[in-house]
Every structure is written in C-alpha cells, then in structure tokens.
Design goal:
Layout (H helix, E strand, L loop, with lengths): L16 E2 L7 E5 H11 E4 L6 E3 L1 E6 L9 H7 L6 E3 L3 H14 L5 E6 L3 H4 L2 H10 L3 E7 L33 E4 L6 H13 L6 E7 H5 L1 E5 L6 E2 L9 H12 L4 E5 L1 H5 L3 H11 L3 E3 L14 E4 L6 H9 L2 E5 L5 H4 L9 E6 L2 H4 L5 E4 L2 H9 L9 H22 L11 H10 L9 E4 L4 H8 L8 E3 L8 H12 L5 E6 H6 L3 H8 L4 E6 L4 H9 L24 H7 L3 E5 L2 H13 L4 E6 L24 H18 L12
Parallel strand pairs: 3-12, 5-6, 5-7, 7-8, 8-10, 9-10, 13-14, 13-16, 14-15, 16-17, 17-18, 19-20, 19-21, 21-22, 22-24, 23-24
Antiparallel strand pairs: 1-12, 2-11, 3-4
Helix pairs in contact: 1-2, 3-5, 3-18, 10-14, 11-15, 16-17, 16-23
C-alpha cells in the first residue's frame, strides 16, 4: 500500500504557528524591507528545548550597486533582529553561511546578499557546494532593472537571444529553488516556497532569489499577517510500512550486515538511534565523510572511515558484508570505491530523498533516518548479526584504534619532514580539555583522507569536512561559519598551502567579528595530493608542486604564511617541527583572537593503511611507458569490477 501510515511530529513549514494579526490589515513596505522583515520573523525551537531563537543567524553582505540601496537599507532597519555581517569575498561568505547551517545540522541557517555582476557570480561555486552537500543557504544576488530603462547597466551580462536573461540565470542548475522577484507581491508565494525547500529534509539545498534593483526599492501594501513571528518546523518523510517490512525481511536473512552512516544521520539527529540499533543487533558501522562523528570514535562497533579514504577495518567488513544498510548517504564513488567495495552485498538505502537512495542497486526506504531506525526496532526484535561477524568487527575496530594511536604518536626525526598524520596527532594532543570538544574543519587535498582515517570524533559534529564538492578555499571561510554556530567550541581549521592561498581573506573577517579560529597550515610547497594522483596515473610530476611549475628568473616564492596571517590581523607563528607545533597550539588555544600556525610537511608521505581503488580514467594511448602501464592496471580494475568474485572467493582481510 502506498499511503504513509507511520506518523511523526515534523509538520509542514506552512503549518507553523504564528501570533494573531487583525484580518485585512496591511503594511506598506518596499520589496527589500518585506523580505528582510519576513526572514527576521522566522523562529526555530532551541536545541536545549528552552524557547525559540531566530531561524536565520544573520545575513552576510557585501554591498555594491544592485543591493546597497534596496536590501542594504532594509537590513539596516532590522540590524538588531537580523544581524548583517560584512565579509571580504562573496564566495567565502557563502561558504561561511553554508558551514553555519551544517554545524547546526540544518536547523539554523544564514542568507547572503551581493551586488549584480561579479558579486553575484562569485556565489556560483558556493551554490554548487551547497547543492551537492544538501545544505541550506539563501542566496540573494542583486539583478538588473526589470524596467530595462537604463539597459545595459554596469556589470550587466546581455544575452543576444533572450532579453529576460541575466547572469543570475547561471544559478538555476545549482539551486534547489530559483526565482526572480519581478513584483513585490511575488514574495507572498516565493518566500514560503523558499523556506519549505530550505527546511525540508528531502529538498534541502540552496535557494536563489534574484532581486532586480528597481523591484527591491518598489513599495507595496503587504498583508500584515505575512510578517507574524512563526516557529518553523522541519518536514521529513515518515517511513512506509511496506518499505519497512521489505527492509526487515532482507535484514533478517543477513548474517554479515554492515551499516554505512552518512550525513543524513547527523541532520536527522539520529546518532543515538544509530548507536542503539547497532548495539542491539551487533552490526558494525562504517562512516562516510559527511557521516563521520555519527558514532563515537571509540564505540566498539565503529570500524572507522569507509571507502577510498577508509580504514582497513571498515573496508574489510564492507568487502565481506552480505547486506549493507546505507543510512543518509548518496553512496558516491569515494564511499563505494567506484562501485567495487561491496558488490556482492544486498543494499538497503534509508534516505529522505529517494533520488539519493537510488544508488548502487539499492532497495530504498524513503524516510528520515531517525524515524526509519525507530520503525525498524520493533519488527527486528530478537534478530542479531552472526555472532562471529560481530566479534570480528569488534576485533578489527579495536585493532584499527590501536593503529591510529601508533600513527599519530610516531617518534619524530629531525631530518624527516612530518606528514598529515603527525600534525593530526599533535592537534589532538594539544587540547587541555578532551580533544573531543574540538571541531575540525577541512575540505580538499590530502588532509580529508588523513582526517577521515585518523581524526577521533567523540560527539556528533566534531568532524566538519566538506568532501561532497571537495572545494579548495572552503576551509577558513567554513571554519568561520562553524565558529559563529558553535562559539563555545574550539574550531580547528587544518588546511594545505594550496587552499590557503586560494582563499584566506576571512581570517580578517574572523578577527573583525571576534570569531576566533585556530588555523594550522601544512606547507608542502604545492598541490601534493594531485601530484601523487598524477604520478599514480602514469604522469610525470608537472604543474602541481611549485618546483615542477613554469617559473620566471626569480623562481617560486618562499611564502611566509605566519607573516601573511599577521598582516590580516591574526596572531601567527611558524613551527619547525611537531614538538614546536604542539607548543604553538597551546599558545593558540590561549590566545584572544584567530591564531595561525604553519609547518612544513612532506608532499609525498601518506598513511599506507587502508584505502581502496578509485576510478580515475587513464589515457588509452600514450607515448610514455608509465602511462601505458597505468592504463593496463586501470583496465584490470575495470575487468574486476565487471566480473566481481563470488562470496566464497573473497579474501579474508583480517
């Protein structure tokens, strides 16, 4: 049967409660004033259960022509109820807004406003990042004149075939909902729709409302009730009985089940439900990048990271599992080893969005993660994974925890540069409190792989790595958003020199806002991760490490990251080794402002333990032997994927 029969308390955003306003009363406002007033009226229940707080934590704004006179004036009027935060880069401030929402598990969010032209298009990368990661952010770029009287205005992109197109149309493929507000009355439908997308578990992602500058300033008589304070709910699908029954049937036949915990576990507040379910049924848990911290790192059933950047424990269990329960994950290629890691397993995908669940030939349970786990509890009473399987999971997980301790506490030799694992260990040892209170932030390069394996996350949200879009430049801006969301926690941004140079301006913003970050810069003199991938595909070292790039007569610069950070208002120093790094981190934790510590690292060394194949296409034709050899290995992997081994032919990875 198709009707949903398992109910829950997630009401529609349109059903939200609000205070009474006399019927028929109106208030005359500009479009921009009405928009800002509506955003300021949205409330959300506090995490601690004590009352409500604003849904929108603020609006990041860089003003220019197209938003300074309209929405800028409106934000000034409401600056006490809806704070306006000034940033230094449009893409970066959108990253900060996205990270703020992620740190709040999508229960609070921010808006971003820009001028037209480059101010608007600078948001596109961030919009794509939010879209891929299913994270809410409200983008409010300025737009051209609807009247077209002054066309073409400064920064206007003209389409030779369509007079209604502006640069903001580029947001359509990277927005979950897009609208261009061409009349004030349009807000009456556009804003509730936007809010629904931003708060809905299945539809969640970036919303773009393009704001033509003349319409921003246009006045209209709005219904006063439209601005009544509202407590917003977060719609999420309840599971259907037929899908729960089908999942139970498949699980009851499983002897070697494995849970894959994705970001949906965190966003649905299902961490406790996951722990109960895994413990009750003896099922090991492996975590994706987005799902890491769903289960405490030292839980006996936490096998660690899964996939290309996975632990040997999790990958061995995934390789031998007969059933994979994928919760809140879209099973992208880094998780599945490009669809080679659990080819023999039946896959059950619990996901609020059926599109994300329909991966890896999965049977879909279209539901909120917490609600689905709770619905599975009663019909699975008495069922348990094969005892030897649970015992094996405990043994592998414990062994991996011991290995992590060894890797992150390795003795240092003066003549050898440290690598990421050494730095991660130093960061976690530097905490006077439990390092579990720290939140680590990262995004791209070698570090996400090492952090996925080695970071010890003790509570939900302690691991904040953007790896859906793997966007260089997210790190510092994202750290700022996390700190604004969680001011009581130490936020540790660990970043490579390549990402630092790509986007670092929000160091100045963090100092200006008093949002202290601890930033650790690993300087390996280039793009070390891609340099290794290039060579793994048979390529010669080329255009990645600075030493292999085209250079002028002065050669590559030796960058003083500490001096640069001090110039942006932070405190900073360079550490010569791991011992100096630990001492510097103690000073950083005690400092009253953002503190940057740089350290030179080895671009070649990585953690050998764990990992899995990842498909990167290698040229079929090349004059170079190394490329032809790499292509032969690639073809062998493709053949193995096309003809996977039978279950009884699998290798025992213990």
């Amino acid at each position: 049967m198709n009707e949903r029969v398992l109910h829950h308390d997630a009401a529609s955003a349109n059903d939200a409660t609000h205070t009474h306003t006399p019927a028929g009363s109106t208030v005359r406002l500009t479009t921009a004033q009405a928009l800002v007033r509506y955003l300021a009226a949205q409330r959300v229940a506090r995490e601690d259960g004590n009352g409500t707080e604003p849904l929108f934590g603020g609006v990041f704004a860089i003003f220019g022509h197209g938003n300074v006179a309209g929405i800028g004036e409106a934000l000034y009027q409401h600056r006490d109820a809806l704070p306006t935060l000034r940033a230094h880069n449009e893409q970066a401030m959108a990253h900060s807004a996205i990270a703020y929402a992620k740190a709040h598990f999508r229960r609070r969010m921010m808006a971003v406003t820009t001028s037209i032209g480059p101010g608007a298009t600078n948001l596109l990368t961030a919009a794509a990042l939010a879209h891929v990661n299913r994270l809410p952010v409200l983008l409010l770029p300025g737009d051209i004149f609807v009247s077209r009287e002054p066309d073409p205005v400064l920064q206007q992109v003209e389409d030779f075939n369509d007079g209604g197109v502006s640069a903001n149309d580029a947001f359509k493929p990277v927005s979950r909902y897009f609208d261009r507000i061409v009349h004030p009355a349009q807000l009456l439908s556009a804003l509730p729709r936007a809010l629904r997308v931003l708060t809905d578990a299945a539809m969640c992602g970036p919303v773009t409302l393009a704001l033509p500058q003349d319409v921003q300033a246009q006045a209209w008589d709005f219904p006063a009730a439209f601005f009544a304070p509202r407590v917003v709910r977060f719609p999420a699908p309840a599971p259907r009985i037929d899908e729960i029954d089908a999942a139970c049937t498949r699980l009851r036949h499983a002897k070697r089940p494995l849970i894959v915990a994705g970001g949906g576990v965190l966003y649905s507040h299902a961490a406790e439900a996951l722990h109960r379910f895994a413990s009750t049924h003896g099922i090991p848990v492996a975590e994706t990048q987005a799902g890491k911290s769903s289960l405490a790192w030292n839980d006996p059933l936490n096998a660690g990271a899964l996939g290309v950047t996975g632990s040997p424990a999790a990958n061995a269990l995934a390789h031998d599992a007969d059933c994979v329960l994928a919760i809140g994950t879209r099973l992208q290629d880094f998780t599945t080893g490009s669809n080679t890691l659990f080819t023999q397993a039946d896959v059950i995908a619990i996901n609020a969005n059926a599109f994300d669940g329909l991966k890896h030939r999965a049977m879909v349970v279209e539901a909120d993660a917490r609600l689905a786990l709770e619905a599975l509890a009663e019909p699975l009473q008495g069922w348990h994974a094969e005892r030897t399987w649970t015992a094996r999971a405990h043994k592998l997980a414990a062994g991996w925890r011991d290995t992590v301790t060894t890797l992150t506490h390795a003795p240092q030799r003066d003549a050898v540069l440290p690598y990421e694992g050494d730095v991660i260990g130093a960061v976690q040892r530097s905490s006077a409190r439990s390092a579990m209170d720290d939140i680590v932030v990262c995004a791209a390069g070698t570090l996400p792989a090492e952090l996925h394996k080695l970071w010890r996350a003790g509570k939900p949200g302690a691991y904040h790595v953007e790896y859906g879009y793997s966007c260089m430049g997210y790190e510092i801006a994202g750290g700022l958003g996390v700190k604004l969301a969680r001011p009581e926690r130490d936020v540790i941004v660990i970043i490579g020199d390549g990402s630092y140079l790509m986007m670092n301006s929000e160091i100045a913003t963090s100092v200006m806002l008093g949002a202290k970050l601890i930033i650790v810069v690993l300087d390996n003199r280039g793009f070390g991760c891609i340099n290794r991938l290039q060579q793994a595909c048979g390529g010669a070292p080329f255009n990645n490490l600075l030493e292999n790039c085209v250079q002028g007569p002065l050669g590559a610069p030796r960058i003083d990251f500490a001096a640069h950070a001090r110039a942006l208002g932070a405190q900073a120093e360079h550490a010569a080794n791991i011992a100096e790094l630990e001492a510097a981190l103690q000073r950083a934790r005690a400092a009253d402002r953002t503190y940057v510590v740089s350290i030179d690292t080895d671009p070649a060394r990585t953690t050998d333990d764990g990992g899995w194949w990842w498909e990167v296409a290698v040229p079929e034709v090349s004059s170079r032997d190394t490329v032809r050899d790499a292509r032969a290995k690639y073809d062998a992997q493709l053949a193995a994927r096309a003809d996977p081994p039978a279950a009884d032919e699998r290798t025992d990875h213990e």
